[in-house]
User: What shape does this take?
Amino acid sequence: MSEHIVPVKVYVTIFLVLLVGTTLTVIAAFIDFPWRLNTIVALTIATVKATFVVLYFMHVRYSTRLVWVIVIAAFFWMAILFAFTLADYFTRGWLSTQSG
Amino acid sequence: MSSPAATDHVHGHPALQHHFENMEQQREAGTLGMWIFLVTEIMFFGGMFLAYALYRTFYPAAFASGSNHLDIWLGGFNTAVLILSSFTMAMAVYFTQVGKLRPQVVCLGLTLLLGLTFLGVKAVEYYSKYEDHLIPGHVIPGRPFDPKVQEEGQPLDPHALHLLPGATKEKVELFYWIYFAMTGMHAVHMIIGAGLLTYLIIFSIRLRFDPEYHSPVEVIGLYWHFVDIVWIFLFPLLYLLGRHFHH
Amino acid sequence: MQPIESFEVPVSPKVNYINAQYGLKSWLLTKDHKRIALLYLGSITFFFFIGGIYALMIRLELLTPQGDFLQSTTYNKVFTQHGIIMIFFFLIPSIPATLGNFLIPMMIGAKDLAFPRINLLSWYIYLLGGVITIYALLAGGVDTGWTFYTPYSTTYSNSYVVATGLGIFINGFSSILTGLNFIVTIHTMRAPGMKWFRMPLFLWSHYATSLIMVLGTPVIAITILLLAFERVAGVGIFNPALGGDPVLFQHLFWFYSHPAVYIMVLPSMGVVSELIANFSRKNIFGYSFVAFSSIAIAVFGFLVWGHHLFVTPQSVYAAMIFSFLSFAVAIPSAIKVFNWTATLYKSSISYETPMLYALGFIGLFTIGGMTGLFLASLAVDVHLSDTYFVVAHFHYIMVGGALMGYLGGLHYWWPKITGRMYPEGWGRFSALVIFVGFNLTFLPQFVAGYLGMPRRYHAYPPEFQVFNVLSTAGASILGFGMLIPALYFVWSMRYGRHAEPNPWHLPGLEWRTPSPPPTENFDVTPIVTWEAYEFAPAEETEVVGKFRDQGALADRPGIEPERG
Assistant: This one.
């Protein structure tokens, strides 16, 4: 199995995409979106940028299935840490321990 | 380029280690090893991201206040610097794969330079926090967390915190604690990365790498991209929180 | 590569991994996984004795209801340090770093692990962490409990929290590097024909353990770091004065520390699978169920940590989910116990020392596991939390389970590691003494805890004394029982009977090498065509004939190396 060599064009494109993303996220930060959309917009842009870095700069797009599993597992495990801990904090007020 | 093997390893590249069957197996093992190490890094930073997510949810005004006091231009500049360094790192790997030594070393050198630039800017930022008494707790003996707070109607003081409604100084201290912990840990990883890049430059000049064997360049590249990804998340989460409250 | 010419293996050739090179430097700078395993063996045995001395002090104090042997602050340090040393410096590395390091390359037909130098580095990191921790113990010790709960550990304790934390933090990297090495090795270095489902279950367990090491340890690393920073800075994210939450520390701490208990027990389960199959001369019943259960334990083990927070302000809804999942995580363990038992059924059992330990494991681990279910029930846990019931529960798993598996494995592979047999009679005797001593130590603690005796107290109400006296008596027997193997193992290295390459007549790849093996393990990479526990007839020539029929001794077309 020979190594896949990513063409320079791809790297340049991704680099420009990342710069555009950064600019977008700074602009979006100054706009007052309703509800919690500011956070969602910022995190979405960051996730998209990170995905491009992972897929192209880190060659995951051209890597074996095992590498894909490893990358997904890492984020999944972080999600476990987040989900269960935040589930505790967000549901603390739900059940009143006072009776009557 | 590397000379033919005059070692006791009969077939294969001089860089082939004795317990591997062939270079392909060695390369696969090295790449997999670095990916698993990055998994540990994701979990390591994950703990701090969790603390951030928690307290940001409970104290939004304080976090926004603290965030607004960070220099968005320095932060944005650093983001661009790091993204550029990721590009030069990817190009360094490319040039190694195609066997072009000089561009390879140039790209590695640029990556290192950009990384050091990032650290320099960070030092400037940290110093300004020090000046404004924003370093949490008693980390600096004799200089506890005690920033000036911008009063209504007083002239605008660039060193003073604007407390948004609902924010208190204690909660802002919590923000800065997380800021320093996360960017500090990130900076430590950058410093390690700078060391690794230096090693790569030296060994590239010594002709240790060629298109058949350049695993270290690749895996250190993976590490560098990871450090970039952490910053891609840190920048909006720390610097861009409350700008929309406070244009 | 060339096929193996014959399975005739030279008996104890002159040069093996032990005498291949002489001198301290050849040991301290070795890259041979077998030598590194021995380096670890020496170190963890040292730490085990230190932890054991602390245990002795605990049991001496608890002989009488009054706090008359140690001051309360000293007692706090003693139980804290017992926990820290035993968990971080003995149990977590024990089987993986000794038996795992030694056997994994051999079991898959490789010459070494994927990263031999990182393997050596992991031992040095372990030592560094150990030295720093011992310094902290000698300088004055730490009294927070091995759980380091805030705000006591960050704000109020006057003990050496930061130094101890640093030692544990550094030691964590040893764990991470070991796990990383094992995962990469098992994925990329299996010999041709060694498919995943032909691997001995010992390898499946270690793979699952390595997953936990890699995914969990970094979280406690950052937690300890944040704890240390908070202590140094005077404020932090666990401090209520700033609006922080001490329970956040507990979430982060237990996110690792619960899966850590599976790091401690899974390798032992892997050993037990080997022992049960091999000493009943029967393939493990439900091999794939046992293999998948190992992975299931590793995964589910990450979903239950909140059961350590049942008596904190954790939300009731989260607690209910954690409780349910804690019941669920018992299922894969139970599947293993059922499969081991089914393996024993109608098999040809022999009661050598390793088998005694394996049988002991099955019974004692079952008791430990079932008492865990009491603790997983929310309401019952409110009553049992922080009592001796909990202490007894985890000691049944850690000592009755993990330690028994470790001792069984040590005996079983001792001939391979050293080329000598241990004295079988003494082996069986000490196994029985340990079993009796262990149960006498910890069974009364279930009762004492259920009746309300709290843990981590150096004095207690007089009605609990009878249980504590029984427990201390048991501990003396247990301690005596564990000294015996220490003595005869050392004795056997000089005076023990020389072992053949395959003293137990088993098909595993590790038995296809001399005892002790040469440095490179195999002269040529073996090609595997048999299943994990395929027992051939006892006669060696018949085995050779069987493999010859399978074509193992001729040029073999069409066997694709399996990767992935």
